[in-house]
Model the fold of this input.
Amino acid sequence: MASNEVPPITRRHDPSRRGFASDNYAGVHAAVLSALEAVNGGHEGSYGADAYSANLANVFRPHFGDRCEVFPVFNGTGANVVALQSMTKRWDAVICAESAHINVDECGAPEKVAGLKLLGVPTRDGKLTPEHIASRLGGIGDEHRAQPTVVSVTESTELGTCYSIDELAAVCEASHRSGLLVHMDGARISNAAAFLGVGLGALTTDLGVDVLSFGGTKNGLMLGDAVVVLNPEAVSGVRYLRKAAMQLASKMRFISVQFEVLLGSDLWLVNARRANELAARLATAVRDVAGVTITRPVEANAVFAILAPAVADRLRTRYGFYTWDEATGEVRWMTAFDSTEADIDEFAAAIATEAATGPG
Amino acid sequence: MASNEVPPITRRHDPSRRGFASDNYAGVHAAVLSALEAVNGGHEGSYGADAYSANLANVFRPHFGDRCEVFPVFNGTGANVVALQSMTKRWDAVICAESAHINVDECGAPEKVAGLKLLGVPTRDGKLTPEHIASRLGGIGDEHRAQPTVVSVTESTELGTCYSIDELAAVCEASHRSGLLVHMDGARISNAAAFLGVGLGALTTDLGVDVLSFGGTKNGLMLGDAVVVLNPEAVSGVRYLRKAAMQLASKMRFISVQFEVLLGSDLWLVNARRANELAARLATAVRDVAGVTITRPVEANAVFAILAPAVADRLRTRYGFYTWDEATGEVRWMTAFDSTEADIDEFAAAIATEAATGPG
Amino acid sequence: MASNEVPPITRRHDPSRRGFASDNYAGVHAAVLSALEAVNGGHEGSYGADAYSANLANVFRPHFGDRCEVFPVFNGTGANVVALQSMTKRWDAVICAESAHINVDECGAPEKVAGLKLLGVPTRDGKLTPEHIASRLGGIGDEHRAQPTVVSVTESTELGTCYSIDELAAVCEASHRSGLLVHMDGARISNAAAFLGVGLGALTTDLGVDVLSFGGTKNGLMLGDAVVVLNPEAVSGVRYLRKAAMQLASKMRFISVQFEVLLGSDLWLVNARRANELAARLATAVRDVAGVTITRPVEANAVFAILAPAVADRLRTRYGFYTWDEATGEVRWMTAFDSTEADIDEFAAAIATEAATGPG
Amino acid sequence: MASNEVPPITRRHDPSRRGFASDNYAGVHAAVLSALEAVNGGHEGSYGADAYSANLANVFRPHFGDRCEVFPVFNGTGANVVALQSMTKRWDAVICAESAHINVDECGAPEKVAGLKLLGVPTRDGKLTPEHIASRLGGIGDEHRAQPTVVSVTESTELGTCYSIDELAAVCEASHRSGLLVHMDGARISNAAAFLGVGLGALTTDLGVDVLSFGGTKNGLMLGDAVVVLNPEAVSGVRYLRKAAMQLASKMRFISVQFEVLLGSDLWLVNARRANELAARLATAVRDVAGVTITRPVEANAVFAILAPAVADRLRTRYGFYTWDEATGEVRWMTAFDSTEADIDEFAAAIATEAATGPG
Done:
């Protein structure tokens, strides 16, 4: 059967509909799709023994420095769990914000797969400080306590905020001074860099971050995140841990090339900046709407707001988004690289209209 | 930046080169690539809340029956580990052939991630029999033993052989009679069905297989395998286990639609049959070559042969393939859907030439 | 060599010295030692197939009701980890106080051995309330979250306080109403029963506690805790989990008989009451000492107090005890069944003397 | 309640009855019981901070050399799982005989608790050879394979045989030459030393064994095994791993002192030699009985024999013992330190009588 004999796929979704539940409601950037086609055809080594995976060092090192090593994986949870395992021994603990993805949204994978204890610290804005870290070091050397070994920060945070360079530097410095390694969950690191107006290395390598979970999926890829080892002395066994964590792709060329598209051009920045700008545009448009309260600084590509549940429910009949906090009615709106100003303006107008109608 | 402003990817590999190390050296079927493009654009629910994932029941049920439930995952190791966990409790054991992928090629993921004990049985041809199963049931009810609960068969096997329908039926019957569930690692189930000339359900649902790891990646997909639950009473918590095993794709529409291409047409069969035929062609071509001994029945898409190491090494300068057994010099040649008769004939000719030259 | 030819052991410690670091600084009650001797001699079934283990139901059921099943283990951590595993599936979470032993003092065993996620709730006094429980139920049914399945309470708590019957009843009722099971860490349940003036069943079975970790070691045994299943429908696989958790004693008669001594008489109550009374005596004696502040209600056998670090350090040259909170200088003094009023009075006098001397 | 007010324990078993199912059917040596009494009384540091635990180096080093470090645990499974974890990383595998206790009799604890993959090798006599080890090294460096890192030998073996010094030396040498560490499961190491007529160090430290699970329970203790680190560079984190494996005793003085009794005198040798001699006596007595076939060399304290199942069943009405192999009817008789020649002669006579009666 030639390919043209396979019946073409019918589109089952309405591409004009917009959702704000997550930046992974978006599809794939056209340049990524083109690249998938370009690398197809013929036989290439599997499990990373292909020319595109071999080239990844050239793709990442201009951003992250000459010592970095790259291990593509399937998703952000995979990147985090592989990274944390490579940095810890069996009896170790990881200090993180209570709101961290690893602590809240990974169905306990760090505990279940890696046996790690997470020491979650309540924070106001999703950002750890040296004081937070110091507060969890009490049990070092005590055999009754899982041993704190890694500090995991998320940049940008799950709350749409960004650590400043100084804030991150302080966390890295405090961690290292206490003998801890630093892991960054960078599922949205590009959004943070875009917000701060710096390069990716300025947020990571330059500050002494040891291992990065680099996020591609939320920034225009079809599928692909990566464990980026910035300090090779901080890890061991990444290759084995990736396979044992079921994160080793057989036809890896199709993942690796996506990173080449993203980081071999300015696409990482263009996409992230656009998503951020659309979030800012949305926040600006609804900030003064009666019945809508923006609850957190809008820095990356998320807007958090409180509005009446009935209003939210009516909006949701047309636009997907999540309630973040049932107790307060706070919702989260996320923007993605593939929306337009018109999309945002339409959504903002709908918010204003529904808010004016009120809880009804 | 419009997509046309992203510099196009340079092809880094030579698509005319052929490799026989694995069927995942192949690329992606053109119809699959087309489908990825077709489902792009616009916003769709993530983590499976999309129209293509919702449609998967319609895609799989014509093959596997009306009770089947489908959980796409990233790869075969992921499918196996999620499936086995869903069928077992924390103290359980799994009976499998010593040569099984779960026992040999998954870096211990079943043990490490799921805490399972594998009870590997030596086999001549990669196929379990009722006698093999009976031999591992001694410890049932004894608290000192991990409890045998699942029998895992691989169809087609890692040795290129296929269980016949009768053989599989006997294993299923013996397993169920002893209170055990049956898991099938179907990374290459399509090749088995093509060899046996039966449908996919005839190898699984009709025989009482409880859970199937359905393989797509090796049969023309870019990336995608699935846990297919044939007996919903045999499992619990698949959704949670998939997420905790880091196998839940965010932009799942791009995985789900690939299954629609494969199983919504005859592509699964066309691809598998072609790969099988090319293996048979290769075996026929080299069977009588002096210095080459075909070592196993050629049923699916693998040819195992013994030849002088020096001969193998010379061939490997042009064609990738693995040594299967260092001790005997046995090698494995795998064929894929995307090769031509000419490719095979060229390879066979090279084998004959090098064998004639001898160990040198 | 007859036993009298083995050189007798030299006492290496000074039995007149008193420590207040833990109730497990105490030794073994004389009646327990006598019982160990009584059951020695001859051959008895191992791994629980002995007459003393067979008799345990008769020992525990008068306290905990006719459905209870008893599984002796080596220590409290073992009891907790076996109990929690028997009540949960692989993807589950356990709600507990942030101060719970399982969360703080078990080197991450629940995460590492059982893969559980602990959802720790900050509390003022170590006691969970229905409101605390409700606050952690948000993710039920969401595959991204480890699923809350068990509420674990500690009675008496790690802070020396006791849930009242009404408080425990409210927690059990709220848990069950939300579909959660209740586990009790009863490492010091006897102290709670003594404080509250009720039987052991009134704190557990009568309120609907599903599984209890019953503590013997801290209350006069040499070694021995037990998983006591009060609701057999709440668990599965305890026998296998106990063995896989390395908690199955071979010569179990020597553990089982200790429970017979403790619970077959009033010894559990006599020992616990005495320890409680000594704690109350200590608190009364130092409550009005200038420079000493009792910080928590003294209900079971612990006294928490803040005093100047230099004062604490001088006391520690003669009496062992722990600093509970480095930040505040809070210390913990625990009393045990084997001390006398004179011991306490001597320690109280030393505290008064050192406090009068001041930080120096 | 004074101790004399606690009702004394009634003996529930018949101490004159003999069992041959396991050496842990035996009780406790009188000198051990005396020592438990001697160390009772007063307050001592918990979790190993006591004078008897502090003295353990002095107890073990005369046997195992000046570098050895001792970590008491509760049982042999605990010792094995802690030892193996301390020698491995998360992705490692352990080579062992298929008949090894870690592979057969620990309910999968090495897989479940430590995530280890065991590479079991079939052996004739329970003993690994350099060839066996070489056969399992194929996957070193291959990320698809759990990485062989430790060779675990059992001395004496589960089959009642003993590695000779030369055999052990060859295994150690081959392991180290391949970069592997050596663990010894020494649950019955004293029986092996007694059989071979050498000291404990001659079987371990002198040959380069890296870590030993030292067995006390089967050789006259009430309860107590130990992880004995012979090569401190081979391990990390033993203290944390012991606690996380729930093997850290609170009142540890009562375990540590038992080792002092055993190893601080010749008791380890006297007990082991006696058990061995009784096994040899039994084998001699029944070797020529018609209907009884001794199946394995009788070297340590086990006798394996085949006899008619009906004969075995009749014997079992009076003497406990296990069927080792249902298929062949092979049974195992174990002897212990606390039996007499008369006990053995009586049992041998019963065997002869029942064998003469025949399968009936």
